[in-house]
Structures are given as C-alpha cells and as structure tokens.
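seq as requested:
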Amino acid sequence: MKSTLLTENCLQKLQMWDLLVLTAGSELQKRNFEILLADTDVNQYCRRTVVIADYPAGVRIGSGGATLNVLHTIGETMDKQKVLLVHSGGLSQRMPHLSALGKIFATLPDGSTILEKKLSTYKHLSTIISPGLLVCASDVIEDISAFKHCEATSEMIAFATESSLEVAVDHGVFVLDPEGNLKSVLQKPSLEFIEEADGVLPTGNVLTDCFYWMSWSICKQLTALWQERGPCTVETCCYGDFMRPLGYAPLLDYLEQGPSELSLWRKSFAEIFSKISPQVVNLGVHSFFHMGTPRELLEHCHRDSTFSQKFLASFSEAVHCSLSNCTGR
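struct tokens:
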C-alpha cells in the first residue's frame, strides 16, 4: 500500500510545471491576478507561480514583447526547467464582463475557471516535452489527447488544429509539403492565398496554430535581444512575428512593412526563428476551442456542444446558455 502511494506521489510530482507564468497588462491587473491566483488551487499542476506585468508601463508591447519581458524577468535560473507561459494581459475588449479580471479566470459551467481547465489539460504535457517554455493564450482550451511524444532533437514544437478555410483566414496557417515538412507559415491569409500556397489539406481543412513549445536555447537568444537592445516598445506578436520566419521557404516580405522600429524587431526575430526546423503536431479536428467572444463562449458552454462533451463532465444547473440574444461577434 505504501509503495503504491509513493509511486502515485512520484508520478504526480513528475506531472508538474516548474513554473506557471501569467502576464498582466499593468501593475493593477497584476495585483488582481495575484489575488485570484491565491484563491486558485494550482498546487497539483505547478510548483511555483508568478505574474509579470508588461514593461515599460503604459506601452502596448503585445504578446511578443511580453514574452521577451517574461524571459528577461525569470532569467537563466529557469534553464533546464519546464515553464508554462499563459499570455493573459489582454484588454478583453470583446468580452467586457471579463475586462476587469481577465478571460483566464472566466468561470465555466462545471465551476472551474479557464485557467484550471488549461492546467488540467496540459498536465501530461510536462511529462512528454523537454525543459523549455510552453507559450499559449488565455482564451483557448485545446484537446491535446492526440499528442503522445515529441522528437528528441526538437528545438521547437508547433501544435496545430485542423480548421475550416473560413476559420483559417483569422489565424496562422501551417503549409506542409507532401513529406510533412514545414514549408511556410501564413499569417491571417486570404482564401485565395491559402489555396495558392498549397495550404489546403486532403481533408479540405487547413492547419492553424494553437500553441507552441521552444527550447531554452531559443529562449536564451530571445533574452539576448533584450540585453542588447533593451525592452521592446512596439507591439509585436509571439505568434505572427515569431512563427512567420519558420519553414524552409518562408514568406518574408512583411519584414519591410510597418514602422522602422517594428521592422527592426521583426528582422531580429526572423534571424532566430528562420534557422529552426520545428516539429508540427496535428491535434486533429475539434481540438481548438476559442473563448474570445460572447458567442463563442456561449456556443462552447452549451450542454450539447463538442466542448462540453469533451471537457465538462459535470454541468451546473445554475448556468444557462442561450444564443437568442447574442447576434454579433
């Protein structure tokens, strides 16, 4: 009996993140998140937690700048450890009832928050991936049951879902060659561009981005950018600006677009990520559930939805979801 308990305890300790990081858009939001985190039981999922506010204060740096800020803040002390970064510092403008507290602490019909559901879903990832940084969004819950192993030599793993063409135009799109190698990453492309780039799968769907993991080798290169240039003071994206240089035939015309400061940062990111051959993991259809708008939240929280069937074992009778008065996105 004691042996069984010890084995279970050891396994539970292995299935944990060394550090959970939430980003905050301001010091005020940071303090609010810290209060909410203190009331959330995350001990079974991670050893430590920290909330890091965007810097410089009052400057919109986007998820790209926030990622650099996080890496600079936690420093190289996290090398050889597994860190989960949830970008949660957005304004939630399309979800005004969550603007004060953030979408990451939104309550689902089973009584759990999006954060708790994400931590539960990601729990087994910490036993599969190597030390590094897992980067994800606060308003998405993914079904990652299809992911069983990673390539030992992977410097980066990009997790993707199969989406319709209509959905793909609002996301990053992975274009693979017939051998399954990543050719390029398109950012919010038109339907015509997706077809011209051979981005449509045999199923008629398209591979769109979910979240990703990167090694500490990559993280150190990003940290060096901060040390060399100081904090990022323009709005950059940890998806579009980090991932578009990936692949053996990336489309880099965007590097010359926009203000000079933005172009400079994008070129620096491209210098790092263009040298990486990521592993692309197809999580399949119905594996990406976005909670970014009231309609999406209501659709997914409906008792008969695919999301409810996958993630909501219990359903509170106190929660009633209706789409009758929700017409816009």
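The chain has one domain: 16-311.
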